[in-house]
Amino acid sequence: MSYVFVSPGKYIQGKGILKDIAEYTAPIGKKPFILFSAGGMKRFGDMVRKSFADQGIEPVMETFGGEVTRQEIDRQALTADSHGCDYVIGIGGGKVTDTGKFVAVRCKLPTVVCPTIAATDAPTPGRAVLYSEEGVSLKTYQLPRNPELVLVDAEVIGKAPVRLLVSGMGDALATRFETEACLSTNSKNPAGGYTTVAGASLARACYNTLIEFGAQAKKDAMNGDCSLAVERIVEVNTLLSGLGFESGGLASAHAINKGLTHVKDCDAYYHGEKVAFGTLCQLIMEGKDEELIKEVFDFCHSVGLPITLKEIGLTPDDTDKLMTAAKVAGDPAGHTKNEPMKVTPEMVYEAMLEVNRRGEKYSL
Ligand SMILES: [Zn+2]
Questions:
Q1: What is the dihedral of CA 341, 347, 349, 355, to 10 degrees?
Q2: 145 CA → ligand 1 middle, Å
Q3: Model confidence over 198-246: pLDDT tens digits?
């Protein structure tokens, strides 16, 4: 039995640091292959090119085709290879940076991740999700290595839509409770080992920092102020949430998110929003202290994460849809197997209704 903790080689976060990207990545290689989202190329392309030009480096810069498919990975890897690039940088949201990770694996190169939003915990893990041409997620791959560097410009993230930052808080909210579930059952984490004291501590720090700074960060981000609270939440959503889940573990909150992805009506809602609702369900199913459950409801309410079915596109009368989600979530081979109790689809269904009942009281 082994305890496993994984992390990127280095994590650097600061305001306005993207313009100095060439300096930060200089120890990694001499010829970067840089993948941008279409919007990212427009917003940051010139700035990034200049940073490298100042160091006498001409990077290969490409625009992401829009989906993390085998074809797209092949296409980008071919370009990186043919130019003799010696490392890969992904600048953008999760799909761009995941494609960067896949391209790096294909070319056997180190990768740098520069997230421009903090909506999920995707930047730090050695994991990436492959999609079909139609945009259906096919498989999550555990990659041979984590990113060499995660470079986070808090100012860039602070300028992204606030709902994305809040959604990232929803993803981060699950980290402590899913890790605790895994610890209580001695379940393995996604890195393939048991949870270290370090992993458990980060998951706890993730939650505590979220409660301390979450609401303030949302207010400040809405006012365009990249305050200390915003910087703390950028770290929570990116570093603590990423390390916490990869070296901690997953449980019902993400299983319920997966269930909700099978209901079309929930498609308009972000990963972190569904995970937040799943977290509330997990706490109800685990029979956690009422005081703690209230704290989590209060937090979600304060930042605008969903606490009712309506806020994820459903109603309590959508019995069939709720059961569809509950059946996927309650799959005995899924993440609910890491819970201290046996989770059935009926339990998930009842928990979703109970969360809704409690959540509706907030709007009375
Ligand atoms: Zn997640």
A1: -70
A2: 19
A3: 999 999 999 999 999 999 999 999 999 999 999 999 999 999 999 999 9
- Tell me the C-alpha to C-alpha distance, in Å, between residue 230 and each of 45, 66, 260: 25, 28, 29
Give the pLDDT score at 134. 85
Q: Identify the CATH number of the domain defined by range 10-158.
A: 3.40.50.1970
Is 80 exceeded by the pLDDT of residue 364?
Answer: no
> 121 CA to middle of ligand 1, Å?
6
Give me ligand 1 centre to Cα 123, in Å: 11
Could you give the CA distance from residue 69 to residue 130 in angstroms, rounded to a whole number?
A: 6
Q: How far is the CA of 50 from the centre of ligand 1 (A)?
A: 34
Domain residues of the chain, as ranges? 10-158, 161-363
Q: What's the 52 CA to ligand 1 centre distance in angstroms?
A: 33
Give the per-residue pLDDT at 204: 97
Angle, vertex CA 103, rays to CA 126 and CA 28, nearest 5: 70
Q: Which two tokens stand for residue 268?
A: 């308009």
| Residue with the two structure tokens 């996604």 | 190
Fold of 161-363: Dehydroquinate synthase-like, alpha domain (1.20.1090)
Per residue in 271-312, pLDDT (tens digit) is: 999 999 999 999 999 999 999 999 999 999 999 999 999 999
* DSSP structure string for 7-64: --SEEEEETTGGGGHHHHHTTT-SSEEEEE-HHHHHHHHHHHHHHHHTTT---EEEE-
**pTM of the entire structure?**
0.95
